[in-house]
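Table 4 source record.
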Amino acid sequence: ERLPAHMVPAAVVVLDALPLSVNGKVDRRALPAPAWEAADEGFVAPRNEVERRLAEVWCQVLGLERVGVHDDYLALGGDSILSIQVVAKAR
């Protein structure tokens, strides 16, 4: 009846057909990435230089146009692997 939160998909991408490999299996590398969009509701722009710099880093790593100070990194598509890039760019 209900899925635990960790089993609920973060995004859904609708496709006409799944890309298949020459063996007839799903070609996961050919699947399109979901289009992550920041919600406009409650957007708070960065208020100081530190927040601006971190927002720029998040935008670069996550491929977004803008990030607000209250946006959720994971909800925007961030993960533990991408966080390594965030830390490296923020230094």
